[in-house]
Design goal:
Blueprint lengths: L1 E10 L2 E6 L5 E5 L6 H16 L2 H6 L4 H4 L8 E8 L7 E9 L5 E10 L8 E7 L2 E4 L7 H6 L4 E4 L7 H5 L6 H11 L1 E4 L3 H4 L3 E2 L13 H11 L1 H14 L3 E8 L4 E8 L6 E2 L5 H13 L7 E5 L7 H17 L2 E5 L3 H4 L7 E7 L2 E6 L4 H8 L4 H6 L2 H6 L4
Parallel strand pairs: 3-16, 3-17, 10-15, 15-16
Antiparallel strand pairs: 1-2, 1-4, 4-5, 5-6, 6-7, 7-8, 8-9, 11-13, 12-13, 13-14, 17-18
Helix pairs in contact: 8-9, 9-10, 10-11
Length: 396
């Protein structure tokens, strides 16, 4: 799955923002308070809408009035254009959320469209409003598939605050809708809490990291037991990045808990994770995330530079790129010049405030920045010199 285009309407600091021409690996920069975290929260919000409902997602963020952009009325809206596979049709998902006459959250509009090739209007697969609408059953990977299906099934949901894709995605005949559900379910916004990664945990199988990393020890044991070759690859990469660490083990205690132990090459006995530096723990956590055989459709990583030595940031940037080339899409927010120096021009977006609301611009659209970068100026240096943000504000 690859997201290619996003439109945001009335979601907190984003009144009308567009992110286009999105690569598999995208990096977002901006001053504090301009909306980097809010942009990532959009994916968490849509995930919460799907897993629970719209009311729950809004309540988790303070309610509709706290989520809708300041001084704005009307609906909160998103348009996401993506492909499930590189050569499959472009899919557009449109969602508008508002309030009913009684002030209750409702899905005002929800549509799913397939592009009919390079020309022509998109073909409507799902069309819902206030809990009622129509959807197409069957597998649709091309316009030829779409032409074979003449009837859209009338459907009614249990509540107008439920996404139609959630209800219909549970039925195997709605293949297109189920694919979209699977994609959104597989979006993950990670904000690792290093202290939580050190905790000993009950001996229980966890196949992938939580968004805070608090189950690191359990995932480590799972990978060691079920995917020994992949786990050995993690250890090898860890040794390359932090040579003093010769091995990492997840050991069971007598009371059936698991603890992480790090072996330093200079000492006979291993160290418990609580005695290991924050940087070592964070690098190991990222390697577990990025080398797990079970890949995510989208990873959102906030400020990975925290607790890491600057020399490791270029290595980590390459780890993210490698994941985006072999697994899912990766979005990263950062303030670090060292991290920016390791990315490509086409991967960088700037977020800034314009007329009271935040906008997002792809910096490769600046002729000056493109010229400087091709001439050998690192992006991190251009960030420090404030050239990136100054040029981003000139892009229309």
């Amino acid at each position: 799955m690859k997201i290619e285009h996003i439109e945001i309407h009335n979601y907190r600091v984003f009144k009308d923002a567009v992110v286009d021409d999105i690569p598999n690996y995208a990096v977002f920069i901006g001053k504090n308070g301009v909306g980097k975290t809010t942009f990532f929260d959009i994916f968490g919000f849509l995930h919460d809408c799907l897993i629970n409902n719209v009311r729950y997602a809004l309540d988790m963020r303070g309610g509709f009035d706290e989520v809708v952009s300041r001084d704005q009325k009307g609906h909160i809206g998103f348009t996401i254009k993506f492909r499930l596979e590189a050569r499959e049709p472009l899919i557009t998902y449109e969602l508008q959320i508002g309030l009913s006459e009684r002030g209750h959250p409702v899905v005002h509009l929800e549509r799913l469209r397939f592009r009919r090739g390079s020309r022509g209007a998109p073909w409507l697969v799902l069309d819902f409003s206030n809990g009622k609408g129509r959807a197409v059953a069957g597998e649709i990977k091309s316009y030829e598939d779409a032409k074979k299906i003449e009837n859209r099934t009338e459907q009614e949901l249990n509540s107008p605050d439920i996404l139609a894709i959630k209800g219909l995605g549970q039925f195997k005949e709605f293949i297109a809708v189920a694919s979209l559900c699977k994609m959104i379910e597989d979006w993950h916004v990670f904000d690792f809490h290093i202290d939580e990664t050190r905790q000993r945990k009950p001996n229980a199988a966890h196949t992938s990291l939580s968004t805070t990393g608090d189950n690191l020890v359990q995932v480590t044991k799972y990978l060691r037991d079920q995917y020994p070759d992949d786990f050995q690859n993690i250890l090898n990469r860890m040794k390359e990045r932090i040579p003093s660490v010769s091995s990492v083990r997840a050991e069971e205690t007598t009371d059936h808990h698991i603890v992480l132990q790090f072996q330093n090459e200079h000492f006979k006995n291993p160290f418990l994770s609580r005695f290991v530096s924050d940087g070592t723990m964070k690098m190991f956590t990222y390697l577990v995330l990025l080398n797990n055989p079970e890949r995510h459709a989208l990873l959102c990583i906030e400020e990975p530079e925290n607790q890491l030595y600057p020399d490791l940031l270029s290595i980590l940037a390459e780890e993210f790129r490698r994941y985006s080339q072999t697994g899912g899409q990766v979005f990263v927010s950062t303030h670090s010049p060292d991290f920016l120096n390791a990315i490509e021009l086409d991967e960088l977006y700037c977020i800034f405030v314009q007329n009271g609301y935040s906008v997002i611009r792809k910096i490769s659209k600046s002729d000056l920045v493109k010229k400087l970068w091709k001439g050998g100026d690192p992006l991190g240096d251009l960030w420090i010199q404030k050239i990136l943000m100054e040029e981003a504000q000139k892009i229309t």
